[in-house]
């Protein structure tokens, strides 16, 4: 627990100032976190990111992450983000021929879906900060922290019925409901003390549920690949995906709900 607290404090001290400042530092942070997330997925499947197909997968991810704010840079080359992504997908498929099927169609499918999973989530991390402002980033962080903490502590105290034992045997229905309740409390506080819209209270229930689904998705990955944590970059916490799994589902939904 002590190690978790120290890591959390240090990470927050590095993370929050960059989020507050935004701009290019936030873009670089987004690219860094997403690339580490892709590396963790590659490692789970025993694929080497430091390879030809690994380089293509990183470039595909980076194309996905390219912020809307800087799209004019691509316009000067007469290419869109979609066109770049198509090129990298075709190159990944061609790589199966170059390697004589040592890098298989299944590996291509895993690579593309992994890049989409990580890339879409972190892309909307940056877009949330730009379009929604700092308040929506803080809301998403505190809402998910409240969901996780509420689910853990209420599950420990009151949990009896298993939520999804095949995926995550320690999670309970009571804990899940408790997490949603704690998230709603956070939403109420944000409505009272910030200029965030009142409609967020109802939407928080959906976001909290999908945040928990994001957590279960990551648990399903780890169970499938028989690993305990996605990585070791955050001592006491695991990897980047272990910390951002819920938020990778929440940030895109914030945009889909058109909250700003």
TrEMBL record:
One Gene Ontology MF term: phosphatidate cytidylyltransferase activity
Membrane-spanning segments: 6-34, 46-65, 77-98, 110-126, 132-154, 175-193
Enzyme class: transferase
E.C. numbers: 2.7.7.41
Entry's localization field: Cell membrane
Reactions that this protein is recorded to catalyse: a 1,2-diacyl-sn-glycero-3-phosphate + CTP + H(+) = a CDP-1,2-diacyl-sn-glycerol + diphosphate
Its membrane topology: Multi-pass membrane protein
GO biological process: CDP-diacylglycerol biosynthetic process
A GO CC annotation given for this chain: plasma membrane
Pfam families per UniProt: CTP_transf_1
Record keywords, A-Z: Cell membrane, Lipid biosynthesis, Lipid metabolism, Membrane, Nucleotidyltransferase, Phospholipid biosynthesis, Phospholipid metabolism, Transferase, Transmembrane, Transmembrane helix
Pathway: Phospholipid metabolism; CDP-diacylglycerol biosynthesis; CDP-diacylglycerol from sn-glycerol 3-phosphate: step 3/3; Lipid metabolism
Family affiliation: Belongs to the CDS family.
Entry protein name: Phosphatidate cytidylyltransferase
